[in-house]
From TrEMBL:
Bias (Low complexity) ranges: 607-641
Role this protein plays: Component of the signal recognition particle (SRP) complex, a ribonucleoprotein complex that mediates the cotranslational targeting of secretory and membrane proteins to the endoplasmic reticulum (ER). The SRP complex interacts with the signal sequence in nascent secretory and membrane proteins and directs them to the membrane of the ER. The SRP complex targets the ribosome-nascent chain complex to the SRP receptor (SR), which is anchored in the ER, where SR compaction and GTPase rearrangement drive cotranslational protein translocation into the ER.
Alphabetized PANTHER family for the sequence: SIGNAL RECOGNITION PARTICLE 72, SIGNAL RECOGNITION PARTICLE SUBUNIT SRP72
Gene name as annotated: Srp72
Composition bias, Basic and acidic residues: 572-593
Annotated source species: Oxylabes madagascariensis (white-throated Oxylabes)
GO biological process annotation, one example: SRP-dependent cotranslational protein targeting to membrane
Residue span(s) of domain Signal recognition particle SRP72 subunit RNA-binding: 540-596
Protein name: Signal recognition particle subunit SRP72
The keyword Transmembrane belongs to this UniProt entry's keyword annotation: no
Family of the protein in this entry: Belongs to the SRP72 family.
Main localisation: cytoplasm
GO molecular function, one term: ribosome binding
Length: 678
């Protein structure tokens, strides 16, 4: 008895220790006390519950779940349902968490909150929306703002991933989280400018709320703003402002945020901007998308988009095996999805296996008729690239749901015209017009009004037939158009022109419907026309003409303006009294008075000393004595220098007589250079 009493006293002391540690938030110490209690009584339900709570608070979810599963007889689902479901949720066992919640006998408020979170992770947005609405309606506590934030997040997810137009929940966007979620919903609707304004407001609210806390640094604020800035960059990318988006993306990466989901999305978006350029940077960014835990942070569509881009990057980097492996894996996960098979076809085309690529696409189109249209468009493009335009036309015409579309009709007619197959082009027009006739009849219960698209097709068909000389075939189309609009003079004129070859009498009858010349005459006020701005300008221009010119203009109707000849420039030393040399245009050697160069003259006057010296008796080389007559060009090798202050005319301005000497100098230089190994 004394031992039992001592044990009870010890247990009481331990329980008070557990209570005190729990209130202080010291769950590690509380866990030690709980374990001591369990040593006294291993099946104590309260102690086991406290142990599970302490482990959860310390982040040991796996160990906590192990305790629950070990003591299933004591810890029944009624007692520990929330804790078990929460551990499974935090361990990313979402399906198990859902089963645990649904199997609980009593749905407490805590379980309902967790239920909403589980539904969001499972992307069951409609059920999640209903769960949060019920919680907000039936709860009144300090967590109401968080519930509204979660509700707006569900609406944003619906708008983004399911393209559902969100309803106005009437939430007051007083926090930056609510503003951010509202911006995401607007992005899903394509309202990018409005979304950007919401994000700017969210950034402002975030700065205001965080700056009120003195312990928060600027780095902490920037880290919190990273997700807002990432969404801003995404809007810029969608708007085509790729340089601005790329700059903002890189700024966020430099901050090294702890959110692996945010980093993965930003890295993926940078890869999409790079495309087949800057491949080295893309390879580095791919590593961020492979970080641990990314698969639990992103939606299925986000993860799928990342995998698609990995396959495309492998193709751009010529990793053919890796590309095939990734695309095959994606196709097995989503057999009905278009992108994996398109990536495989693109890889085959890069390997010049066009026929195999077309066969792959054809197999997919046969297996998935719902997606056959887009696949066949790709097949047609491949055929055009190979030069098989007729086969491409056959593939396009096999897409029944697009045969009547104006864009398809235009493409087929253009391609057939290129191949000079006018009959097939006309057949395309006929089939499209018949489709619209049947559709209009089914919609209007036998009435036959023509839609604008229908009339436009008839008009194009008629013009095409007239252009290619098929006037007989154009008559029915023109009659239909004229019937719809009897006041259309242009159509009537075309119809008369077409009938003139087939039935001239009919053409005459129809010509009576043409407006008379009286109704077509234009009532023009000549005076007003002459006094208009344009006429005044012409009159002023005409007023500058002389009387003779005006007479010529009246007599000849048109006067050509004579071009004035510019006076040629005369040389500075031109003397009008002296007759210029008639042979001045000929080279000196070809002139009649050229006698050749006299050799041997002035031989004794050449300097015998050092380079640059002259003989003292050479009066002819003294420029000061014969200043009026310019000196001849210096001979090669003479080394004569002209000072900067001299008024001697440079060699290029002297008489051509010195030209042979210069030529000789050039030849000597050339010869000298030849020895140098040129």
């Amino acid at each position: 008895k004394m031992a039992a009493a001592a044990g009870a006293a010890a247990a009481a002391g331990l329980w008070s220790e557990v209570n005190r540690c729990g209130q202080n938030g010291d769950f590690a110490r509380a866990l030690k006390s709980v374990n001591k209690i369990l040593q006294i009584n291993k099946d104590d339900v309260t102690a086991l519950q406290c142990k599970v709570v302490c482990l959860i608070q310390n982040g040991n979810f796996k160990e906590a779940l192990g305790v629950i599963n070990t003591h299933t007889k004591v810890l029944t689902s009624d007692v520990i349902a929330f804790e078990k479901a929460y551990c499974e949720y935090r361990l990313n066992r979402i399906e198990s968490a859902l089963k645990t919640i649904q199997s609980a006998s009593q749905q407490t408020d805590k379980l309902k909150e967790l239920y909403g979170q589980v539904l969001y992770r499972l992307e069951r947005y409609d059920d999640c929306l209903a769960a949060y609405r019920d919680l907000i309606r039936n709860s009144q506590d300090e967590y109401e703002e968080e519930r509204k934030t979660n509700l707006s997040a569900v609406v944003a997810a619906q708008s983004t991933w399911e393209k559902v137009v969100p309803e106005d929940l009437g939430l007051r966007e007083a926090t930056y989280e609510l503003c951010y979620n509202s911006a995401c919903a607007l992005i899903g609707q394509g309202k990018l400018n409005e979304a950007m304004k919401k994000l700017q407001k969210a950034e402002e609210l975030c700065r205001q709320s965080l700056s009120e806390d003195s312990d928060v640094t600027e780095e902490d604020i920037e880290a919190e703003l990273a997700i807002i800035h990432g969404q801003m960059a995404y809007i810029m990318q969608l708007q085509g402002r790729t340089e601005d988006a790329l700059q903002l993306y890189n700024q966020i990466i430099k901050l090294k945020p702890t959110d692996v989901g945010l980093l993965a999305v930003i890295a993926n978006n940078i890869i999409t901007i790079n495309k087949d350029q800057n491949v080295f940077d893309s390879k580095k960014k791919v590593k961020l998308t492979n970080a641990e835990g990314v698969e639990h942070k992103l939606s299925k569509k986000q993860l799928q988009a990342i995998e698609f881009n990995k396959a495309l990057l492998a193709m751009y980097t010529n990793q053919a095996d890796q590309c095939r492996k990734l695309s095959a894996s994606l196709q097995s996960q989503s057999p009905e999805h278009l992108l994996p098979v398109l990536i495989q076809a693109a890889q085959l085309c890069r390997e010049k296996q066009h026929a195999k690529a077309v066969g792959l696409l054809q197999d997919f189109a046969d297996q998935h008729p719902a997606n056959a249209a887009e696949i066949k468009l790709t097949m047609a493009q491949l055929k055009i690239a190979q030069g098989s335009v007729t086969k491409a036309c056959m593939i396009l015409r096999s897409i029944e749901e697009l045969q009547h579309k104006p864009g398809m009709v235009s493409a087929l007619v253009t391609m057939y015209s290129h191949e000079e197959d006018i009959d097939s082009a006309i057949e395309v027009f006929t089939q499209a017009i018949q489709w619209y006739q049947q559709y209009q009849a089914s919609q209007t219960r036998g009435a036959n009004p023509k839609s604008p698209v229908h009339l436009s097709l008839i008009r194009e068909a008629a013009n095409f037939k007239l252009k290619h000389g098929r006037k007989k075939e154009a008559i029915s189309d023109l009659e239909e158009l004229w019937k719809q609009n009897p006041k259309d003079v242009h159509t009537l004129a075309q119809l008369i022109s077409a009938y003139s070859l087939v039935d001239p009498e009919k053409a005459k009858v129809l010509s009576k419907h043409l407006p008379s010349s009286d109704t077509m005459s234009l009532k023009v006020d000549v005076d007003a026309l002459e006094n208009s701005h344009g006429a005044t300008y012409v009159r002023k221009k005409a007023g500058k003409l002389t009387g003779d010119n005006q007479q010529k203009e009246q007599g000849q109707g048109e006067v050509k303006k004579k071009k004035k000849k510019k006076k040629g420039k005369l040389p500075k030393n031109y003397d009008p009294k002296v007759t210029p040399d008639p042979e001045r245009w000929l080279p000196m050697r070809e002139r009649s008075y050229y006698r050749g160069r006299k050799k041997g003259k002035k031989k004794d006057q050449v300097g015998k000393g050092t380079q640059g010296s002259t003989t003292t008796g050479s009066s002819e080389l003294d420029a000061s004595r014969t200043a009026s007559s310019p000196p001849t060009s210096p001979r090669p090798g003479s080394g004569a220098a002209v000072s900067a202050t001299s008024n001697v005319i440079p060699p290029r301005h002297q008489k051509p007589a010195g030209a042979p000497a210069t030529k000789k100098k050039q030849q000597q230089k050339k010869k000298k250079g030849a020895k140098g190994g040129w």
